[in-house]
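#onboarding

Welcome to the new folks! Below is a worked example of what a typical request in this channel looks like: someone posts a single protein sequence, and someone else replies with the predicted structure as tokens. Don't worry about understanding the tokens yet, we'll cover that in week two.

Example request:
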Amino acid sequence: MSDTVSDPVPDSLPPLLFTQYAVRVRHDRGTTTFLTAAQNGTAAVELILNVELAPARAVQWVAAQPTCEYCDQPATRRVRETGESICRACARGQTDGPLREYVTSLATTQWPRLTKVTHLCDDQCADVTHPRHGREVITWER
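Example response:
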């Protein structure tokens, strides 16, 4: 009988947090908006560009789905009077009348846009194993 030592498994692992992103990509026949879930905007863009085999310059804009103003759920509605982003459950809880009179659908074009940040990945870059080390790197940030 051999004694094997295994790495201890933590009691609770940190949750993987994904946000839904809308990525607008320009191509030969016009533009298309792709919806994807990722940990950040840069990962969402890389996923879409790899699947579509498109260059980075094809991305027109990136938007992140907002969270509800009253809870931590993804917002799917917008309050007509105030313009707040709100989830369906909170919208139902705040109105006694028909839901249609109180809120409207939250379209991807109304999601907050991310900012395109470009920097040169040079010798000052902490990650020398970066696949684009020495070249221009584009990130998308809130």
